[in-house]
Protein 1
Amino acid sequence: MTDTIEAVFDTVAGVAGDVREVLASRRSYEAGENPSGEQQLAADVYADDRLEDQLLALDGVGSYASEERDSLSVDSGSYHVACDPLDGSSNLKSNNGMGTIVGIYDEQPPAPGDALVAAGYVLYGPITTMVTAVGETVTEFLVEDGEREVLNEDVTVPSEPVTYGFGGRAPDWPEEFAAFVESVEDDRLKLRYGGAMVADVNQVMTYGGIFGYPMLADNPEGKLRLQFEGHPMAYIVEAAGGASSDGSRSLLEKTPTEIHERSPVFVGNDALIAALESVLA
Ligand code: P6P
């Protein structure tokens, strides 16, 4: 298993090097939409095609699922990869952070959160970094020329929360959630919300705090996809000593009925997640 997991992470790091190089020339919108009805950038399609091609070529990988595709690409292998190839790609227009998210499951999607055996994300920031989680080991790497160099071999969510960031428009938040946000602001956490889950969760992993995309008045399931965003990021944050929730339970306890199913997503310090769940109960 470890060989396949490391091969997947090495491959994602290699593709990240290629993606970084082409971002400047792939800011245009494609004609199509992704299965969630979101406009696709040329960079989305490039990252998705490269990841599918290179991940399916790995011996142990049996399927590739992506936020950009209606259905899985299937091969023979015991592990199944689910990717958000370019998370937050709308930030390309404004030159803000974006990422790549990967979950490695031992069941073919739609798969339960407890089928995850590893997960990782690449952050295209001022530098390119990658965070990986296998079991309870969370490691941060510098990614240069497609190669990984360890920066921190024991990443843990800091115990004192500093930042918070929640998606959606405040008037669309449920009242009790809006009251929770006010309590977080009263506790003098700093607002850090940038429109790309990977970059915002990396703030929580670095400084401590909470990130979420809540249930909304016109969309009780929120915006984020469970299989491609919620599950992998929950796996990583929980492995780093934090917690995750859909408002009532860990995201890793959930099983999507279809691969593009959405869920409210909250990740961060366990005390903040517990306080949120008590408010939303
Ligand atoms: P909004 C990016 O499109 C994404 O899926 C996440 O990366 C991010 O957290 C969220 O949606 C941003 O959504 O509504 O703030 O643009």
Protein 2
Amino acid sequence: MDHRVSAQWARIRARMRGEFGETAFQSWLKPLICKDFQDGIVHLSVPTRFMKNWIETQYGGRLLELWRAENPSVTGMEIVHAGERDQASSSRPVPEAPAPDSKAQSDASISAPLDPRFRFDNFIVGKPNELAFAAARRVAEADNVPFNPLFLFGGVGLGKTHLMHAIASHIRQSSPEKRILYLSAEKFMYQFIRALRYKDTMAFKEQFRSVDVLMIDDVQFIAGKENTQEEFFHTFNALVDQNRQVVISADKSPAELEGIEDRMKSRLGWGLVAEIHSTTYELRLGILQSKAEQMRADIPAKVLEFLAHKITSNVRELEGALNRLVAYANLVGRSITLETTQEVLHDLLRANDRRVTIEEIQKRVAEHFNVRLSEMHSARRSRSIARPRQIAMYLSKQLTARSLPEIGRKFGGRDHTTVMHAVKKVDELKQQDGSFAEDVELLRRMLEG
Ligand code: ADP
Ligand code: MG
């Protein structure tokens, strides 16, 4: 093609990108290829018939205007899709290069990158995660959709994202023609809001509904976001109806997800729901041994056992501890002993020593004041109930690493300002009333001890 025409096309694309926004550009305009310019007609091509129709109706008028402005000898424009191209080009020279698979490219651009470290072969399997692991493998290896959706859930740092990436990488390798879309629910929401803003929800829908495998990580993030949920629900249904694989992860089971519509919850539970339970000592030790081996770090068995005993929170912290230990040993050039371990990791070890959960706090406080545990979540406000509840909120703030909104949620979905108020109130009362302060201190010591 004439280089002047190429340059004109480049400027037109830049204009369109500015006018219609990045999402529209990525979905519709970027895949558009300018083939040639003959007898006043610009010939463009796109991968699918659907895209051709959409571009013609939505962007055709503006495209032609821009062509005319760039090049007065343009009289018309013709868009063909890949299926047509073979017939259309028979009388003309063969196009220079085959059109790149623009569709797959635009999927790739909204799909989050896969972490190559998250594979099946380095995922350590134990009782707590064996079901989730087996289900993930099955989905990755199956020719037909074995269950839909696969719903993986469990606490933070227990391997949900690892398994999801492993599924995606496996399918990408074994079936490169399949379109896989992996992204966090947050990113899904962000994309959707963008599409709304640029009035481009058609492109959004097309992008999501044309994939073979849709994977949404941390779906709890769309709790309370009604429009996003609605859109996700439709996308989800469309894909499941077409027998495309959907994989979802969340921090809770479908039934326990808060702020998600009931019909959505029930739909999410239709396939296979697999929980990843908290780690056991055996699993932690297995993970430590395997990671130490991978890092080629010479760590005494005693130290690994010590860590597996002490760091019980989650796998991410376990990895963090190991990395720090190895980095320290390399830096200082000393071998790792139990003493160095305790020294280097003393903060981590202490944090893990007194890890109290909000549930334990609620239970202890309810027992102490002789109120029912359910009152911790109830809406009742009489002082005999509200006060213990406030104390439990206060202790949750003091003794756990949970944020105010997280604490609020655990107390019957209260607002974070309510928690803030409780903390302030209890502080005040402690100052004014010595026996009240003693009571709270006693509870604290019991919980810590
Ligand atoms: P989640 O998404 O559940 O919060 P991740 O998948 O991000 O947790 O896991 C946190 C870290 O722990 C990652 O580095 C992951 O590779 C590692 N990990 C978790 N479970 C295992 C396991 N069973 N075997 C090996 N590594 C694991
Ligand atoms: Mg994750």
Protein 3
Amino acid sequence: MKSTQADTDKMGETPQINLMNLGSPALTDYFDGIGENGFRSTQIIKWVHQHGVIDYSSMTNLSKTLREKLKNNTELRPPTIDDEQISEDGTRKWLVRTDPFNCVETVFIPEGDRGTLCVSSQVGCPLNCQFCATATQGFSRNLSVGEIIGQVWLAARKLGQSSASTRKITNVVMMGMGEPLLNFDNAVASMRLMMDDNAYGLSKRRVTLSTAGVIPGIKRLANECPVSLAISLHATNDELRNKLVPINRKYPIAELIQTCKEYSRATNDGTITFEYVMLKDVNDSVPEARRLAQLLGEIPAKVNLIPFNTFKGNHFVRSSESHIDAFRERLSASGIITITRKTRGSDIDAACGQLVGDVTSKKRSLASSKRGE
Ligand code: SAH
């Protein structure tokens, strides 16, 4: 006997559409499609992202019939938090579960009246940068919109942010696990929600996307969602960068710098941040600082020097403070604003490049529990 739609519904097998995965335009289309006013999209976004409400029955400005319809056909399902760690410096790290096999990490870094949320875009990462812990776990999959914006949603709830007046998250950086430009559509839809006045209302200066240099993605971003851009540069010549950041073989330095110039021009001479991890005896000499200044000469640029954060199984060593200072002073002497990024949350492995999300060990423990170990 053929099973009917109603049967499948009864068995709870109908795949429900998770409205968390829809940005504002897609949500408007959804409501158009079910014969509802597209304005419902704004109402839902406000409930979910401003008030943190995901239970349809509390959405009192929607008719009862619509609430029923939504309850039967859709869901609002953010990811969940498996674990929370709080550093002695106040940094918080959440292990965010996205499915039974995978977790990503999200980090909140408070600093005075600023609060920066570092968001992941992929489970693992395919880029294999040699100094990054995330690379060691390989690539599992792209995160959905619901899983990316869901990290902001979860952090806002955990921090007690329920309106603009209780704002705790003042900045978001797409600098967690993964390469956001390789998950372009979902990263952009999520960043649009971060900037949507009906959701988190952050200005585009306060939303930063960090990339290892995926040139086609940077070009698209300039046209479609020109947020603040950070480039993980880490070397001044292709020979070294090919080794440290292997995607450089595809998108070499000269082309990357040219693309950055165009991005800056497209964003009214916006400043581009260049990140440079300080690796002892690898990329940290004063002549390298001089070459970096030359390279960035024609771009409105700011440089963030990131002292290398170590992790198990890695052979790099952090540059000494005096080397980092000398490097910074050489860049500053060329008129480039340069700061040494403070290492935050390293006691809980929440610093740059230390995020792993525990994916492999979870997989391992799941496999062993299946074997009854
Ligand atoms: N894939 C993106 C975003 C994630 S990495 C990108 O490459 O930009 C976020 C930043 O941390 C990048 O600048 C990255 O190069 C840096 N980073 C990675 N591993 C690090 C480590 N072990 N110590 C310090 N910084 C690191």
Protein 4
Amino acid sequence: MTADLFADQTPAWQEPICPGATVLRGLALAEAPAILSAIEDITRRAPFRQMDTPGGFRMSVAMSNCGPLGWVSDRQGYRYAAWDPATGEGWPEMPEGLRALARHAAASAGFAGFAPDACLINRYAAGARMSLHQDRDEQDLRAPIVSISLGLPALFLFGGPTRKDPARRIPLTHGDVVVWGGPARLHFHGVAPLKAGEHPATGPFRINLTLRQAN
Ligand code: MD3
Ligand code: FE
């Protein structure tokens, strides 16, 4: 008998973090050049900008969006909007390859039928960070969020359901994809200040895309 030794194991490139959260190491590596060139087109039409928080702070991360909806923040609050407040135009289209990659990643992590309508594009320069927060601006919290990391490495901080839960530090590097859903969907998370560096694909930046089902 030749039992499949690996039949009920997760492949090595899939790292479960906790129920609902899985790192898919390097899943976006092959598509990274196409994604980065799409981001250049997108951000010519919807330029990276540092948004203001409702509390009056300017975010250190620069952001843009593609897809039918985009995440925006200003003194009025956080929300998804169909128009870029900086230009009054609709957000650029979500590239089909990006949508398909996110759908495939979600399915690999156990979330079939993922249909993102929003893609937030975060750009970190040296020192930029994201403090611990929850993502709760989306209508249906049963849908996961798929994140794609490109360029300089970062330490991702992954906490629990309350702000005081200890945060694990998870290194995310060029090409890593993470799927966050189910019981992990409302966990607190953030990104430690980016270390200065130079990456062949992105120069002095880290780029993170989060694909979401916002509506
Ligand atoms: C865990 N972005 O844009 S992506 C964000 O690297 C955000 O730019 C980070 O947090 C970044 O909101 C982290 C990973 C991520 C995204 C959503 C999550 C982790 C998550 C939702 C729930 C739990
Ligand atoms: Fe988040």
